Amino acid sequence: MKRIMMLVLALCCLLVSCHVRLSDELTPGEAKIAAAVSADGTKSYLILGDSIAAHFGVSERESYEYKLARKLSDEGEKWVGSNWGISGYTSGNLVSLLTKNLEIPEKRAILENADLICISIGGNNLLHFLRDHDAGELPPEGAAGWIRLSRAFNEGSEEMCTELKSDLGTIMNTIRGVNPNAVILVQNIHNVARDMRGKVTLLGKTVSPTSVTEPFLQPLVRTITDNAESMGYIVADTYNAFAESPAEKLLRREMIHPNADGHTLIAEVLFDTYQAQRNSAG
């Protein structure tokens, strides 16, 4: 049971990660983007989303944003970019952020000029749902607590996914309203138990750690995947990439945020997905 409690504590880290307020002011890098793009055809990317987008727990040079930019530039093009990721953000928070930034001319220009937009969102929707829908204490105590948690999730996960779908639609419409040509990649959600080895016992059954968290993550994974074509984005399948990677450790010790190797893998998935799209389009 102790290891199972650790799994849910890992999920809870999404809610307690430091929440950094994004300033209305442009960063020095953002201030140079519009000038660079207009001056010599430099391409630009924009990172949006939650603590994973904000590279919580790793340095800038260890982040997938930095590694992706290096990969893109190695192709012979010059790239500059911005990061609007904020720890703790849900899809609803991202809707509000985009709406707000469209009112700031310089930030609107960043969104308008982006050739590539990468979005990491959805994990905090799950945590907020569990917190707000009578899931009891997290992590749950004993078998009764797990039964209560599962029942609350089974009864309300459709509502959570409907909200995520609605927010994704608004996010895409907002972006397309000012930038109809950007390639938009939405990352899937990795299983937070993927680094745990061995088995755990839950309700008298011996199961793998990933199978404990899988039922809570799958509805979000399906929502992101199933709506890609109709909403005009492409799934960067980090979910399967993390599951299939032979690497022993891709997450930090709190088992939610990627470590430096995890960020390397995300950068590879984003780059490969973007390159595949460019090849198919051209």
Ends apart, CA distance between termini: 53 Å
Mean pLDDT over all positions? 85
Strand content: 5-15%
Strand order of the largest sheet: 2-1-3-4-7
Q: Got a strand count?
A: 7
Tertiary shape: globular
**Name given to the CATH homologous superfamily:** SGNH hydrolase
CATH class: Alpha Beta
| CATH topology (level 3) name | Rossmann fold
Q: Which sheet architecture does the biggest sheet show?
A: 5 strands, parallel
Number of helices: 11
Report Rg.
Answer: 19 Å
Count of structural domains = 1
Low-confidence stretches: 12-23
- Share of residues in helices: 55-70%
One letter per element, helices H and strands E, the order comes to HHEHEHHEHHEEEHHEHH
Q: Structural class, from secondary structure content?
A: alpha/beta
Annotated CATH architecture: 3-Layer(aba) Sandwich
